[in-house]
Fold this protein.
Amino acid sequence: MALAALSALAAGTVFAAPAEATVFGQGISVHHDAHIAGDGAITLSGTYRCEQVSPMGAMQINATVVQEQGRQLTIGGEQAVCDGTERRWVAHAPGRFAGVRPGHATVTATLREVHFQGLMPRSLITVAQDTQDVEFHEER
């Protein structure tokens, strides 16, 4: 139930920072190459860096792929480890849901701080965002 509420909150973010914005030196990036497996599953990656969040919050990484006439896929919910170290993030989407084809796409990676009130998310704040042109390659 908390995950459903978090997804709903993510869809209607109260505050969204402009592209490539960072708060307090936190950041995220998208690698320029992505992969499509034989079954259509996709893999995106990049790097991120964040500091420890407040005791009532957690950091989450999401990625949105836009390809062909505005068709959009959002992957994510990966929990970020925030210790000031640059780390790699990887996002996967199963082929039956992805629908992404080889070639060009625009990918936006977002690092968000989620604040909870009990078990339910109270607010979602974008602290870093990066948008890149990405090339999807078929894995052989």
